[in-house]
Amino acid sequence: MASNPDLVQYIADQMARAGEVTYKKMFGEYGLYCNGKFFAMVCDDRLLFKPTEGGRALLGSPVLQLPYPGAKPCFYIDNVDDHELLVALTVATCKELPEPKPKKGS
Fold it and tell me: What is the value of pTM for the model shown?
């Protein structure tokens, strides 16, 4: 089941204070990027963050879910209306992720 594009836009808007939040369609679902870093996904209308220690510290005991069969578990965020948490979680997660690799030919 593909995610609702309006929900993806809403989630991106909720995180806007964390940096430049964009999204790209990936395999019928969506990848979320902050300042060019891939940090979360929206799959089947579920928000899933890449697991990091900073994210775990903010969430306490996060619920883990698979974005799709065979994927690594991610932190499932059920309250997409809590923009303060989403901004803090985005910042904490991206702080620990590596910088994106330069595109070939750049």
Answer: 0.92
φ, ψ for residue 90, nearest 5 deg: -65, -45
What local confidence, expressed as pLDDT, does residue 57 receive?
Answer: 97
Quick one: tokens of 23? 């999204």
The residue range of the domain holding 47 is 5-96
The torsion region of residue 60 among left (phi > 0), alpha (psi -120 to 50) and beta comes to left
List Cβ neighbours of 28 (8 Å cut-off, separation of 6 or more).
2
Q: How many CB atoms lie within 10 A of CB 106?
A: 4
How is residue 42 written in tokens?
């929206």
For residue 50, what is the domain's CATH number? Answer: 3.30.1460.30
**Residue 31 lies inside a defined structural domain of this protein:** yes
